[in-house]
Amino acid sequence: MAETEVPDDVRETRLRIARQLAELHRLHLVLVNESRALKRYTVDGRARVEIDIAAEMIEQYIGSSDAFLENLRGRFESRLGLLRRGEPRAGASPEDAPGHGAFWMAFSRLCVVLRRAGGRVGGALQP
After folding, report:
1. CA distances for 43 relative to 31, 32, 38, 49, 53, angstroms
2. Where along the chain do its domains lie?
3. Residues 53-76: pLDDT tens digits?
């Protein structure tokens, strides 16, 4: 298999995740429209209702987003050791371990993303 050729199962996994992320984006847009519609309460002289609903919506969103991100981060952090053992073996010459450098670049990228995710979880709106 050529180095740039992507196996069908990998392509399908990426497409499936891309569709799910697109659906998540669509749901975000629905929530944005709901939040815009809340101004009707203030226009009707009931700003307190808008405030309460807005606070509830944001609290629930942050809570569920943080819980999801923490769960996902935990799953991959717990697999780091196993993933690391998947490193292509390096030999005396670079030809002995094709993909060795690419493996470490990908592994480092995952570690950086996990660290970033860890900094985000619970980080929003902390006193």
Report:
1. 20, 18, 9, 11, 15
2. 17-120
3. 999 999 999 999 999 999 999 999
How far is the first Cα of the chain from the last one, in angstroms, to the nearest whole number?
53
Q: From CA 18, how far away is CA 12, in angstroms rounded?
A: 10
Please report which residue ranges of the chain form alpha helices under DSSP H: 8-37, 39-43, 47-78, 80-84, 100-120
121, two tokens:
């979880």
Q: What is the pLDDT of residues 3-16, one digit of tens each?
A: 568 899 999 999 99
Token digits of residue 52: 């309460």
- CB of 50 closer than 8 Å to CB of 41: yes
| CA 63 – CA 69 distance, rounded (Å) | 10
